[in-house]
Write a structure and sequence with these properties.
Blueprint lengths: L13 H9 L4 H14 L3 H10 L7 H18 L3 H15 L6 H17 L3 H14 L4 H15 L13 H11 L1
Helix pairs in contact: 2-3, 3-4, 4-5, 4-6, 5-6, 6-7, 6-8, 7-8, 8-9
C-alpha cells in the first residue's frame, strides 16, 4: 500500500506527477493517462483498475491521498456503490491529515465524504466529518466557508417549516462553529 498511511482526473495530480517523474517514476503519469483515457471512454471499471494499480508501487502519502480521492470521487459520481466510495474518501481524508500543503485534497475528500454519508442517509456521519474539517480549515478562508455552508445546507430545513428567527439545534451548532 502507501508508504505512510495513518488512517476531472489529471489536473489535480500535477504536483504529485511532478514529484513522481522527477524521481524517474514514469509509471505514475502513464497510469494516470490510461485512467483518464478510460474515463473519457466512460469505462469506469478500467479507469478504477488503473488508479488502483498506483498502490502496487507503494507511492508516497501525497500520491496515495490524491489517488484515493480520485477513486472515491469517480465511484461517488459514476456508480451507485457509495460504500466503496466512502472507503476511498475516508482513506484520502485520513492520509492527508498530517500532510502540509495539500488542503485541496484534504478538504475535497472531507466534502465528498460528507456528501457520500448524506447520500446513504447517515446525516450524523456527514455532520461529524464536516465539523472536523471545519476545525482543521481555520487557515483557509475558502475551504472554511465552503465546508461551513455545506454543513449549514446539511442541516437546512427542507420543508421551510422553521419560521423566521427560529433555528434547529443543528443550525445552532453551525453558528457556534462559525463564531469560533
Amino acid at each position: 500500500m502507501c508508504r505512510s498511511s495513518p488512517c476531472g482526473l489529471l489536473p489535480g495530480n500535477a504536483q504529485a506527477s511532478i514529484i513522481m517523474t522527477s524521481t524517474g517514476d514514469t509509471w505514475y503519469p502513464a497510469l494516470l493517462g490510461m485512467a483518464d483515457s478510460f474515463l473519457k471512454a466512460n469505462n469506469v471499471k478500467e479507469c478504477i483498475r488503473c488508479l488502483n494499480a498506483v498502490f502496487n508501487f507503494s507511492p508516497p502519502p501525497l500520491v496515495c491521498a490524491r489517488t484515493h480521492l480520485q477513486i472515491g470521487n469517480i465511484i461517488h459520481t459514476k456508480t451507485n456503490n457509495q460504500d466503496i466510495a466512502k472507503q476511498h474518501l475516508y482513506q484520502a481524508w485520513c492520509i492527508s491529515q498530517p500532510l502540509q500543503g495539500i488542503d485541496e485534497v484534504k478538504f475535497e475528500a472531507a466534502s465528498l465524504l460528507a456528501k457520500t454519508y448524506e447520500r446513504t442517509g447517515d446525516m450524523p456521519g456527514g455532520r461529524d466529518v464536516l465539523i472536523s474539517a471545519i476545525e482543521h480549515s481555520q487557515g483557509s478562508a475558502y475551504w472554511h466557508c465552503r465546508l461551513t455552508f455545506q454543513l449549514a445546507q446539511l442541516h437546512a430545513d427542507p420543508q421551510g417549516v422553521l419560521g423566521a428567527g427560529k433555528q434547529s439545534p443543528e443550525m445552532y451548532d453551525v453558528i457556534q462553529v462559525c463564531q469560533a
